[in-house]
From TrEMBL:
Protein name: Acyl-CoA dehydrogenase family protein
Upper classification of the organism: Bacteria, Bacillati, Actinomycetota, Actinomycetes, Propionibacteriales
Boundaries of every Acyl-CoA dehydrogenase/oxidase C-terminal domain copy: 232-381
Keywords: FAD, Flavoprotein, Oxidoreductase
Cofactor(s) recorded in Swiss-Prot or TrEMBL: FAD
Record-annotated Acyl-CoA oxidase/dehydrogenase middle domain positions: 126-220
Every Acyl-CoA dehydrogenase/oxidase N-terminal domain range: 11-121
Family: Belongs to the acyl-CoA dehydrogenase family.
Transmembrane stretches, start-end: none
Length: 384
């Protein structure tokens, strides 16, 4: 019988995983606990990822990027998250912030903004949510008004990952208040533009090494050429972007869960109680088995979604939502069980398990809550 290659990753993807895992083990993992404890952006991890071209691997080669496909990008994010969830938001949010440009930007705009991103001179964030517009993203209030050859932006964006650290921001704003979701457009805003400022970093449960802030836009005047795609098509562009990047959150969730399972397995093999390794108890074996089984199911779904993202398949909307929803729920279950397997040691920060459990929670919330993912999946399945 001939070999069926369907469920084996191509060799080059396995090679990327190995290379990335080595960088993460040696140069990212050592900073993970401190980034969490101090709530500080892990600059050393960024530098290590940048040196190895893993900071924004998705940028096409035409713009000086590594040209990683969606699956390779997911693998990079997974491996970084396995040791440090905060650091995994470097490649993940660089993709989120720049995806609208990749999907719909002019050649000139791509050259201007993707090249510095690829070279590691700038990071990119994504500004969709607002204090009163979260799940209902189309109800945003931020305004962009055309004035001659410029656009003038005013408003407040909230929950912006890597805000303040990023140089570039894709900002969604209302250009036609009468047109609802069809009256929203996308723009590139720079941190150095006059009128851009940031709120204090949010005090979060997890991913503490990745700053989350409000972004204030106060009469920010930008050239008309910084419109991404067509006027009025920004909301669709926001959702098309999320179709692709929900796969990256699934990959992040996978990595966090894998990291927790790695530690839990090592611990239960070493830990002795009642005269034997706790791994020898069937109750422990069953827990580990369930964790590994769920994780592998999440991995298969995530990679299947990544393949669809790369091909631009029409069922990506369903698969992106399904992968993100499933993998993040698995990450929460697996990290919670990993804490349980370590008992008291899981609950203190001498071990990384409690951090991983805290970090896992956000994957059920951002880039659309898992309730929104179910809404997206339901709509796709039920539409005529
Ligand atoms: N791709 C392209 N177009 C799409 C689309 C998709 N996946 N889904 C819908 N559309 C189109 C629709 O066809 C419709 O087009 P027409 O006007 O031509 O009919 C238009 O977009 C509006 O669609 P809906 O009527 O379905 O829009 P809605 O207002 O009901 O909202 C929603 C849909 C799915 C709930 C959407 O608002 C959503 O995904 N909400 C969650 C927002 C979210 O994920 N936020 C996360 C922010 S990023 C983040 O977390 C920050 C970070 O830094 C990590």
């Amino acid at each position: 019988m001939s070999e069926i290659p369907l469920f084996a990753l191509p060799e080059e993807h396995e090679a990327i995983r190995e290379a990335c895992a080595a960088v993460c083990r040696d140069k990212v993992a050592p900073h993970a606990a401190e980034a969490d404890r101090l709530s500080e952006f892990p600059q050393a991890s960024y530098d290590a990822l940048r040196a190895a071209d893993f900071h924004a691997p998705h940028v096409p080669e035409a713009y000086d990027g590594a040209g990683a496909d969606a699956l390779a990008t997911a693998i990079v994010i997974e491996e970084v998250a396995r040791v440090c969830a905060s650091s995994s938001l470097i490649p993940a949010v660089n993709k989120l912030g720049s995806m609208p440009l990749i999907l719909a930007g002019t050649e000139e705009l791509k050259q201007q903004y993707l090249v510095p991103l690829a070279r590691g001179e700038a990071m990119f964030s994504y500004c969709l949510s607002e204090p009163e517009a979260g799940s209902d993203a189309a109800s945003m209030k931020t305004r962009a008004v055309r004035s001659g050859d410029s656009w003038v932006l005013n408003g407040v964006k909230r929950w912006i990952t890597n805000a303040g650290v990023s140089e570039f921001y894709t900002v969604f704003a209302v250009t036609d208040p009468e047109a609802g979701a069809r009256g929203i457009s996308a723009f590139v805003v720079e941190k150095s533009d006059a009128g851009v400022s940031f709120g204090a970093p949010e005090k979060k449960l997890g991913i503490k090494g990745s700053p989350t802030c409000e972004v204030y836009l106060d009469n920010v005047t930008i050239p008309a050429s910084r419109l991404i795609g067509n006027e009025g098509e920004g909301f669709k562009l926001a959702l098309r972007t999320l179709d692709h990047t929900r796969v990256t959150i699934a990959a992040q969730a996978l990595g966090i869960a894998q990291g927790a399972l790695d530690h839990a397995v090592a611990y239960v093999r070493e830990r002795k109680q009642f005269g034997q390794a706790v791994a020898d108890f069937q109750g422990i074996q069953f827990m580990v088995a369930d964790m590994g089984m769920k994780l592998e199911a999440a991995r298969q779904l995530t990679y299947a979604a990544a393949a669809r993202s790369e091909r631009g398949d029409s069922d990506l909307t369903f698969f992106g939502a399904a992968a993100k929803c499933f993998a993040s729920d698995v990450a929460m279950e697996v990290t919670t069980d990993a804490v349980q397997l370590l008992g008291g040691y899981g609950y203190v920060n001498d071990y990384p398990l409690e951090r991983m459990m805290r970090d896992a929670k956000i994957t059920q919330i951002y880039e659309g809550t898992n309730q929104i993912q179910r809404m997206v999946m339901g709509r796709k399945l039920l539409q005529g």
